[in-house]
Each structure stands twice: as C-alpha cells, then as structure tokens.
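Researcher: Checking consistency across runs. Here is FLYWCH-type domain-containing protein again:
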Amino acid sequence: MELNFLRTAKGKHFLVQNGYTFTKEKDGADSKIIWKCSQYASKKCRGRCHTQLNNVVWDSDNHTHLPEASRLAAIQFI
C-alpha cells in the first residue's frame, strides 16, 4: 500500500492512513518510522502507525475520535 502524505502551510508532513492524520514521532530501527496521531495533544489520542520502506507495517487503530475528513479537506485546500 502506497503511503499518502500531506504538507501543512508550515512545511510539516502528515501521514494520512484510514482517514486519520499522523505526525512523525521518531525514527526506529531498520528504517522504521513511528508516527503518532496528530490529535495526540488535543484529544489525548493514542493512535499510532509504523511505516517501513514506504509501507505501513503496523497500525494500532486505537483512536479516541472519528476519522478527520473535514480536517483533511482543510489541509489539502491550504
């Protein structure tokens, strides 16, 4: 599955997966990247996603909110 990224007005990258947006949390071993839900601070969301070599290798789907269709549309518009 090909990864889908968006860029904010400030140049930050978001990973888009299943209607949720993720920000890069840290780099892991073997070129793995760990992403946390972009609503981590505001909604205390614990959703996480791991990518490796442009593939999603793990998705917790443990979100405390619904997918963010309106937020995605706003980011794409900007």
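Researcher: Does this match what you'd expect to see?
Model: One thing to look at in this run: Residues 69-77 form the longest helix (9 residues).
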